[in-house]
Amino acid sequence: MLTTEFLEIANAICPERAAVIQDGRALSYEQLYDRVKRLAGVLAAQGVQQGDTLALLQVNTPQCLEVYFAAATLGAIYVPLNFRARPSELEYMINQSDAKLVLAGERYVTMVDALRPQLSNVTHYIALDGPAPGWHDYGAWVGGASADDAPWLEVPEEATTILMFTAGTTGFPKGVMLHHNSFASYVLSNVAPADPDEEERNLLTVPLYHIAGMQAVMAAIYGGRTLVMQRQFEPGEWMALVAKEKTSRAMMVPTMLKQILDHADFGAHDLSSLKVITYGAAPMPIEVISRALNLLPDVQFINAFGQTETAATITTLSPEDHHIPPGLPEAERVLRLKRLSSVGKPLDDVEMRVVDEAGHDCGPNQTGEIIARGPRIMAGYWKDAEKTKATKRDGWIYTGDLGHYDDDGYYFLNGRASDMIIRAGENIAPEEVERVLATHPAVDECAVFGVPDVTWGETVAAAVVLKKGQQPTADELGDWCRKDLASFKKPERVLFLAELPRNPLGKVLRRELRAICTEPAGA
Q1: Are 121 and 99 in contact (CB under 8 A)?
Q2: Which residues constitute the domain of residue 478?
Q3: Residue 190 in contact with residue 172, Cβ under 8 Å?
Q4: Is residue 75 part of a domain?
Q5: Is beta strand 276-279 parallel, antiparallel or unpaired with respect to 249-252?
């Protein structure tokens, strides 16, 4: 199934329903469909053909949806760019993707203009927010076109529809090729189609250059839901939008949820319309999800785990798994609390395994690399056969995530393979140490990483954000970890920081923490 059919179906079933709301202005499904067709006609007239790439640089706006679906209508490839990227990164992504068109919001026009001499393939520049010198005017393009001009093309389901660059923490990002069926296989299996009698509003906060944001869009459009779009996350505005628009669903990363719970105005907004919160993209601290369950008792929580290379969610921890009713036997209560730190079980159409370095299957509770197979995994990395071969083997995606599964089939993440600390030949997963360190009553947040050591090769270091008024020593934190971990796993260096460096989706940037520790321990 083509993703363009999601919009066609929703338009046929509920044309007058709001598809997108931003700044109090609504765009109905009928209006969105019409604008998509108009834009597709203009793009075709400008020479855009099947397989061409279109790069977009913009915060979350309805234009992102229009450009994607118009490109998909033509069989072209949509390239959402990270609007927080540095100019050199943007130059790389635009050139690497062979972008024929660049569409940019007002705040990015000057930056793109400075890059023009280095952009080798771009033939048209389109300004999304009004006229700009040397740019086509997006509004004039769409407003002056006819939906009848959109061509009808046969586009295969296996055609690449999105080229999404990973948010890689080192080096330049990799372009992940996702086809129409990458999204259709998930949506058709997990989302109810549009219903003329049932309305639901989703608050979209996750950026649309991230796979979680695009998955949320696909699910919402197919389901005939209303997307309430926040340009960029801000916790106060997020709560105000829930209250004003009566949104029932939201997707976020753990740091967003923590900021909401910690906000001074939490409790001042009516959040009673919220029914489901899906979270993912980074590990969820037990303390945060436990607080959320207590403070938002009427909300169903879902932990969704996936990555760009899998196009969408591959495991979920269900609302039932988040339910810990009073009166449970102690052993069952402890087990359920432990499972809150898992990413749940694979979806029905996904196969998952844990393998060692030789590719042999690991047993329950044995740490190895998580690999996955299913109908929606990526086609490969754009113009990089070597990395594709290393990551996609015999139909399996090697995720780079270390993890294990328990006796009941729940999967737990133990860190990234590249983050593994090797001390005197002993492998130490950072998340294993973090889970223990985070239970210290003085610790608000922490991140563990390896630092060079002339004697041991690497030793364990920890960056710690303390709770207000707390002042533990590094030795105290090390002793705390030794209670539950082998002595070689305890942090031997501790950095006390005001906050942890993170990427826009909340993942800790361990490379920046390593850079702070420039001198090898023991030198």
Answers
A1: yes
A2: 420-516
A3: no
A4: yes
A5: parallel
Q: Cite the DSSP H helix spans in 459-519.
A: 474-482, 510-516
Residue type, 140: A
DSSP 6-74: HHHHHHHH-TTSEEEEETTEEEEHHHHHHHHHHHHHHHHHTT--TT-EEEEE-SS-HHHHHHHHHHHHT
CATH number at residue 94: 3.40.50.12780
> What is the mean pLDDT of the segment spanning 122-149?
95
Residues 443, 429: Cα–Cα separation, whole Å: 19
Cα 209 from Cα 28, distance rounded (Å): 23
Of 232, 254, 288, the residue that ends a domain is 232
- Quote the radius of gyration of the chain (alpha carbons, Å): 24
Distances (CA, A) of 175 to 65, 99, 162, 352: 20, 12, 9, 24
| pTM, to two decimals | 0.85
Tokens 């001499």, located at residue: 117
365: enclosing H helix or E strand = none
Whether 199 is covered by a domain: the verdict is yes
Domain termination residue (choose one: 232, 267, 289): 232
Count of Cβ atoms closer than 10 Å to residue 374 Cβ: 22
For residue 416, report the phi and psi dihedrals to the nearest 5 degrees.
-90, 145
Q: Report yes or no on 487 lying in a domain.
A: yes
CA–chain centroid gap for 243, Å, is 25
* pLDDT tens-digit readout, 258-308: 889 999 999 999 999 999 999 987 778 888 899 999 999 999 999 999 989
Give the CA count within 13 Å in the CB-facing half-sphere of 459. Answer: 18
Any idea what the CATH number is for the domain that residue 432 is in?
3.30.300.30
Our CA angle for 135, 136, 138, nearest 5°, is 125
**In the structure, what pLDDT confidence band is assigned to residue 523 with cuts at 50, 70 and 90?**
very low
Q: Is 358 exposed, middle or buried (0-12, 13-18, 19+ CB in 10 A)?
A: exposed
Position 130 in a domain = yes
Res 170 pLDDT > 60? no
Give the residue from 444, 439, 447, 501 showing the smallest Cα distance to 467: 444
Half-sphere exposure (CA, 13 Å, Cβ side) for 410?
17
CA–CA dist 205, 211 (Å, integer): 12
Total of domains in the chain = 2
- Quote the tokens at residue 204: 């979209």
